[in-house]
Each structure stands twice: as C-alpha cells, then as structure tokens.
Design brief:
- The structure is a single chain.
- The chain is α+β, with helices and mostly antiparallel strands.
- It folds into four domains: 3-33 and 111-130, no CATH class; 40-101, OB fold (Dihydrolipoamide Acetyltransferase, E2P) (Beta Barrel), CATH 2.40.50; 140-251, Aminopeptidase; 258-324, no CATH class.
- 28% of the residues lie in helices and 33% in strands.
- A six-stranded mixed sheet has the order 12-13-14-15-17-16. A five-stranded mixed β-barrel has the order 4-5-6-10-7. A four-stranded mixed sheet has the order 3-2-1-11.
- Strand 8 (88-90) and strand 9 (93-95) form a beta hairpin.
- Helix 3 (139-148) packs across helix 6 (251-257) and helix 4 (177-194) runs parallel beside helix 5 (211-224).
- The chain is globular.
- It starts with a strand and ends with a strand.
Length: 325
C-alpha cells in the first residue's frame, strides 16, 4: 500500500510517496523559496504593458510577472495578486514568480504537508528519534542520482541535463534497440513523475527501425505518465517531447541549481541523527558552513532537537555534504 512519508526537517521539508519500499514521488520545500502557488500577496505595479511586473510586499521585495493588467492601471498602483507559478532557477538565470490579479484577501498558499494530504493517500509523519524510513526507502541515493544526472536502470542508464530550453533525458545502453527503448523509457517516465518535472521535456530514445515500434513507445508514455500532459509522437531519430504543467521547481532544479542549499539540508539532517553527547560539530566546506551560519534559527532548532550545543567548522579540503559528530 502506498503512503506518503513526511519529514519536517531543519530548513527543508521532505516528502516521499513510497510503495513496496520504493520512492515513487519525492518533494522538498525549502525555507526562502518565495511565495507558494496559491498565495495571495499585496503588491505594487512597477512595470505595465507587455511583460508587466509587480513588487511583492514580502521580505526582500521579490518581483512577479503578470500576464496582463487592466487598461489604465498606472505605475505604483496597489494590487492583490495570486501566485500561479513559483520563482524558478535555471542554468545562468532566474525566473521571477508568475501571478495574476485577484480580489481575494491575502493568504498563504498550501504548504508541502497540506498538498500531499490533499492527494488522499495516507500521510505518515516521520522524525528522529525513530527509524529513518526515508533513508530506508533510498532518499540519499535518489538525491545523489539527481545531483549527478546519472540514473541506472537494468540494461542501461539515463543521462539527465536541465537546460534553459527543456529537461533532456538521454537513454544510453547496449543491446536490442527496442528493448532498450522500452526499459529506458519506463525509467525516464518514472524519473519525471518522481521529481515532479514540469515544462518542456525531451527524451532521446535509441533509433527504432519501424513505425510499430515507435507507436509502442508512444503508447508506453501514455500508459506510464500521469496526466495531464501533451506530447509529440516519437520521430524517426528517436526524439520525443513532452509538455507538463510547471507550477513550482522540480526536485532536479532544486538539487542541481542550488548545491549549497542541498548539502546544507543534508548535513543538518545528518546532524539531527548524530549520536553522542557534548558538542555537536558540523564540518563542511566554507560555502555550506556559511549558508548554515547565515540562518541562526536553524542552529537554534538543531540544538533544541539534539539537546547538544552546536559548532560549525570549515574545512577547505572538504567536498560534498560534510559530516556531523
């Protein structure tokens, strides 16, 4: 039976839909990602016409784009806007949130815990102390695969690259092309669902010899990928494009485009579960240690949960997450 495992971590909330011991879907929600989808926020119009923008009445004064504003609305006008897509990070650029004008009162958008509860699937809250059920299901392994963009499957592997134009998935392997296309296609579709990938997605399949094989791959996509989505037919060169709704950053974007925040969250998770007494020392490369130090509330919460004083140590030679002891 499928269930959501939800963990209220320090600086990051995590959720995994687990079925038969395997993570089917994975989600994270970090401090500082900006207003969530569905949030209604007071704002000020700073640019009208095509590509209208507002400045949101939030810490840091983030901006959001509007598809349109009523004719005659002047710069500086006060508006209430609803967030319809969160801010996104892409390689080499960031995209502000997207919003629309609304008459609704100010409100927060549903958080990760509320969204998974609304799915109707049972939710189990997990925390330390207690079994690390997320890790038992393969949480760290999943994050590592997302980080490297290398996802093995029986008979081959996926190579994943998040470009500004689209997420590209290349199916690599040896042997019969049709068998590889089916196995790799199933792995690619599982990854798309698992990481909540939206927007434009391109899958590069092995070149297939006949129309019947290509139609079989098209049918595989329709069978395995939850709707709604649009797709092209796989072409003679083995390329297929999928378009999915994109409301918030995917797990791939969160992990790949903010590696410091990723490692900081993993280190804090490790520290929360560290055994021992006395000072709890977190050793990490400077960027990760500085990121944690810039959020003293995280350190205070770690001290509260662990019952130990916390110290940060910077190690120039350290790579990756670091360690806590």
């Amino acid at each position: 039976m499928a269930e959501w495992l939800y963990e209220d971590g320090i600086g990051e909330r995590r959720a995994a839909l687990v079925e038969d011991g395997e993570i089917i879907e994975a989600r994270i929600e970090r401090d500082g990602e900006g207003p969530r989808v569905g949030a209604v926020v007071a704002a000020r119009l700073v640019e009208a016409g095509r590509g209208a923008r507002v400045t949101l009445d939030l810490p840091g004064a983030p901006q959001a784009t509007l598809a349109s504003v009523p004719p005659g609305t002047s710069i500086g006008a006060r508006l209430n806007v609803e967030i319809v897509r969160m801010a996104l990070s892409e390689r080499g650029r960031d995209k502000p949130a997207r919003a629309r004008i609304t008459d609704a009162a100010s409100a927060d958008g549903p958080d990760l815990r509320a969204r998974i509860a609304a799915s109707g699937t049972p939710v189990t809250d997990v925390s330390h102390p207690g079994p690390d059920r997320l890790e038992e299901a393969g949480w760290s392994e999943l994050i590592d695969r997302v980080r490297t963009g290398h996802v093995p499957f029986p008979g081959g592997a996926l190579w994943v690259d998040a470009t500004p134009a689209m997420l590209l998935i290349d199916i690599d392997g040896e042997g019969d092309a049709f068998a590889l296309a089916k196995a790799g296609g199933a792995a690619a579709l599982r990854l798309i669902r698992c990481c909540d990938v939206g927007g434009s997605i391109g899958i590069d399949f092995p070149s297939l010899g006949g129309r019947a094989e290509r139609q079989a791959i098209d049918a595989l996509v329709d069978e395995l990928l939850p709707p709604p989505f649009e797709r092209t037919a796989i072409n003679g060169f083995g390329f297929l494009q999928i378009i999915r709704r994109r409301e918030r950053p995917s797990l791939i974007e969160q992990v790949r485009f903010d590696p410091v925040a990723t490692d900081a969250a993993l280190l804090l998770r490790q520290a929360e579960r560290a055994r021992g007494a006395g000072v709890l020392q977190l050793t990490a490369r400077a960027a990760v240690a500085d990121h944690i130090a810039a959020h003293p509330q995280w350190i205070a919460e770690l001290q509260r949960r662990s019952g130990r004083p916390v110290e940060l140590a910077r190690a120039a030679e350290m790579k990756g997450v670091g360690h806590a002891q």
